[in-house]
User: Fold these one by one.
Assistant:
Number 1:
Amino acid sequence: MITFYSHIANMRCPTCDQLQSVFQVFRTNEARPSIWGPLPFLECNMCARKLRIANYNKTLHFLLVVPVFLGSAAFGMFVFSYLGLFERAGSEGPNFVGFVLVFALFVVPAVLLCARLLKVEVLS
Ligand SMILES: [Zn+2]
């Protein structure tokens, strides 16, 4: 399924340039198991070629994603507390809805921007 998040990650079929579902493409990453279970490949819904993530480097990705994750979470919490939205009663921190929104609006998009560095390859 193509979502707003797929557009952020912008993972495309190298053959026909069709935008792919980022969550499905992530399942083809052998180095990192997905909570939805692994997939050996993803079939492009345009040209039916078999696709998967090619150049995943665990260490490099960790070094990039952890600061991006923490930075975007801190930034999102700052924005929400600055605007006074979804605050927990009697504290500066966000409530549960605020926490979920920070995750959905700041953390996930920021981490998916990092996915633009990954390449999709065609299995022969
Ligand atoms: Zn294709």
Number 2:
Amino acid sequence: MKVRTSIMQRVPIWDLPTRVFHWLLALSFIGAYVTGDSDRWALVHVTCGYTVLGLIIFRLAWGVVGTRYARFSEFVSGPSPVISYVSGLIRGRPSHYVGHNPAGALAILALLLLGLISAVSGWMVYDDVGGDWLKELHDVPPFWAKWFNVECWTLEGLHEEASSLMLALVFVHIAAVLISCRLHGENLVRSMIDGRKRSEVNQAITTNRPVVALFVLASLIGFWLWSFSDTLRDTEAIEFAISIEDRAKHFVNQMVKLSDSFPYLVINRNEDQF
Ligand code: HEM
């Protein structure tokens, strides 16, 4: 929604579930990305990936039933608002929007789509589901096959490409946020933390929906505990085994020292053995 008048204050715009979603998505995407190449961190990678998937599914639902500025109907628009926003941006005078601006909204939709493709393809690779449907796409006319290099298309490839593209878009997103902060003279990062943006008072949302945010957080903590429960148990078992082994070694060392102090006993013992 475009802002018209000049009597403005910082009022609640982003509800709590939207903010919780945003920062958890940022964390879990980065977590999944940096652990992607390591066997040692595979469980963290997979858990972050499922978290991305769960969060995006939640956000798709919240885009329908959430508060005013979280709804897709509020910020998804046709091409003409995007074009007029971008031309204003080029002239250095972009319109100020209470919710997402039309160009930002496009990037957000692309981030959600790429996150979805990346997480679903990762799940299909990890759980070996989906069969060879991607390979069937290889049966395209030779011209297209050569043009799009379809021989190289695999689920793993799709997973990696979608993740890399998402990372590139995240950088664009962060740069765009920082540029918008400068052009609008407003700290948008702070807005994604405290939920407030500069606007007319009557444009504010009336509820923050904390219970929904709590539900998202609790589900996530529950999922992470469940996901790592076996590993935690294994770790405890390994630590226990190591401590028993250490105690046993310590006991044997003490016995050896003791027997060294009584050569007579040792000699006798050795003689007994023979
Ligand atoms: C992996 C990193 C990130 C991802 C995947 C991501 C994704 C998103 C998404 C999906 C939204 C839409 C929020 C919604 O309506 O639900 C959004 C908005 C936003 N993000 Fe990020 N984000 C990331 C990192 C960051 C960082 C590091 C910052 C701070 C510099 C940031 C600042 C913002 C702001 C200010 C908005 C609101 C933009 C507006 O006013 O229209 N994001 N981000």
